[in-house]
Amino acid sequence: MILKKDYLKHAQDVSLWIQDYFENIEKLPVKSQVKPGDIYRQIPAQAPIKGEPFDQIIADLQSIIVPGITHWQHPNFHAYFPANNSVESVLAEQITAAIGAQCMLWETSPAAAELEQKMMEWLRDAMGLPTHMEGVIQDTASSATLTALLTAREVKTNFQSNLNGVPGHLRVYCSEATHSSIDKAVAICGIGRNNLVKISVDQQQSIIPEALEKAIVEDLKSDKLPCAVVATLGSTSTLAVDALGAIAEICKKYDVWLHVDAAYAGSALLLSEYRWMIEGAESMDSFVFNPHKWIFTQFDCSAYFVKNAEALIKTFEISPEYLKTKHRGVVNDYRDWGIALGRRFRALKLWFVLRSYGIEGIQSVLRNHIALNEYFVQELLAREQFELTAPSFLNMSCIRLKPTLDHNLEQENNRNINLLHHINEAGKIYLTKTKVNDKIMIRIVFGQTYLMKKHVDLALDVLHEAADKCM
User: Fold this and answer.
1) Which member of 78, 319, 372, 432 has the greatest number of CB atoms within 10 A?
2) How far apart are CA 136 and CA 291, in angstroms?
3) What is the DSSP letter of 433?
4) What is the rounded CA–CA span in Å between residue 31 and residue 27?
5) β-sheet bridge partners, residue 398
6) What pTM value is reported for the model?
7) Rounded Cα distance, 264 and 274, in Å
8) Contact criterion met (CB below 8 Å) for 399 and 442
9) Strand 386-388 vs strand 196-199: parallel, antiparallel, or unpaired?
10) Strand duo 439-445 + 396-401: pairing
11) Among 404, 384, 468, 398, which Cα is nearest to 433's?
């Protein structure tokens, strides 16, 4: 056990470990190379009876844990979407951990509540979101979307579902390309997956507004009750963007809650040249994006905005005597703005990042990532081994080995899967795949905080070398 007076001694050991990790992360394989059970077998079957020296714990961290980590902050991590941190964010998280506040109410830490309110206003205004929207930090976009659908459910049923249960005729609509968290949220909130209507998409994987309206009209004729539409700005597979303006008009026409999932691509709204994505934003009921994906803020930090905060609070508010305070209704008690009662002090790391980088600094990094993706595409296609399988957008591209002359889809898919496995097993870079219209494609995202051109060049070299071996 470490005494408080010995904190500095061991904090220095941890800080040196973190500094070494930052400086030498590129020497590590991006994706963990261990086999299932390797880490588990190295950990004793029982907890120690007597406390162990801290230097031994740090040694085991290095020898046991680090080999089993996939390094999301590695500049050669190009898989999924990034979950980025930054030096500023890490430092803030250390302070947050030391403070150890439970920020469920204004009264339990006034600074946490008021800083969160101000950070949401900073982001809202910097991104060009409607000024009438109010924000709260959720843990993930999945939780934020569930929060949105629960609120939409209550609004549509005049707040009777929380009291009497969910009626079986509510309907939710999203595109075929929407993230799987929508399916999960519809199930959890009691509406049921059979009442989630997947709307067809166009060649760009964007929802077809006419098909959406047709589905709503047909449901109304069948005594179904349209409850919510989830529009996507930046789908998981290809970063497809739904036509928000057209969808907003349909939602307004039929009095349907409009939730916008911009978990990743929403960060690009900090760039004026991408504000076209939120044409029709005045009609949004809720909106979510993740600063922990592309604004260098340690996971978890998901920014959720809502037009009608009163409806949100009414959906989640429960006030037992031990949670009642004299400040009720005067300040924001964020425990009523989402699912969890307990809340971390997430706003501090966002404050550190926004102040240290400034909006211009963040914009510069985002634009650099986008430019590096454009460079990647140009160089990749010049060597004629790969093709783009979807329009390249922002800092992500979907690629695929050029097909052979017989164009056998199953064989082509297997070639690309084998290529991906070969690359990831080597550990130099890390990529993931997706499947659209039965085609396997490889996704590559250039979004790491400290990404440089040399890392893009390495990705190009790895791809071409692997392609030569897989041809």
Assistant:
1) 78
2) 12
3) E
4) 12
5) 443
6) 0.92
7) 13
8) yes
9) unpaired
10) antiparallel
11) 398
Q: How far apart are CA 169 and CA 41, in angstroms?
A: 50
Where are the domains positioned within the chain? 94-353
Q: How far is CA 336 from CA 138, 140, 172, 309, 329, in A?
A: 12, 17, 24, 10, 11
How would you label 122-131 residue by residue, b for 16+ Cβ within 10 Å and e otherwise? bbbeebebee
As a whole number of angstroms, the distance between CA 46 and CA 291 comes to: 39
Q: In the chain, what is the greatest distance between 2 CA atoms, to the nearest angstrom?
A: 75
Cα-based torsion angle of the residue sequence 238, 303, 207, 168 in order, rounded to the nearest 10 degrees: 130
* Encoded tokens for 458: 């390495």
pLDDT one digit per residue (tens) for the chain, 471 residues = 777 787 888 888 899 999 999 999 999 999 999 999 999 999 999 999 999 999 999 999 999 999 999 999 999 999 999 999 999 999 999 999 998 988 888 888 889 999 999 999 999 999 999 999 999 999 999 999 999 999 999 999 999 999 999 998 999 999 988 878 899 999 999 999 999 999 999 988 899 999 999 999 999 999 999 999 999 999 988 999 999 999 999 999 999 999 999 999 999 999 999 999 999 999 999 999 999 999 999 999 999 999 999 999 999 887 654 455 545 567 888 888 988 888 998 999 999 999 999 999 999 999 999 999 999 999 999 988 999 998 899 999 999 998 877 778 888 899 899 999 999 988 899 999 998 888 999 999 999 999 999 999 999 999 999 888 776
Which numeric CATH code is attached to 94-353?
3.40.640.10
Closest CA to 355 of 131, 88, 83, 127: 88
Cα distance from N-terminal residue to C-terminal residue, the chain: 57
Distance separating alpha carbons of residues 235 and 206, to the nearest angstrom: 9
CA distances from 407 to 203, 218, 401, 464 (A): 20, 40, 12, 21
Task: Name every residue whose Cβ is closer than 8 Å to that of residue 180 and which is 6 or more positions away in sequence.
Answer: none
Give strand pairing partners of 132.
none
Amino acid at 383: R
Contact between residue 411 and residue 440 where contact means Cβ atoms under 8 Å apart: no
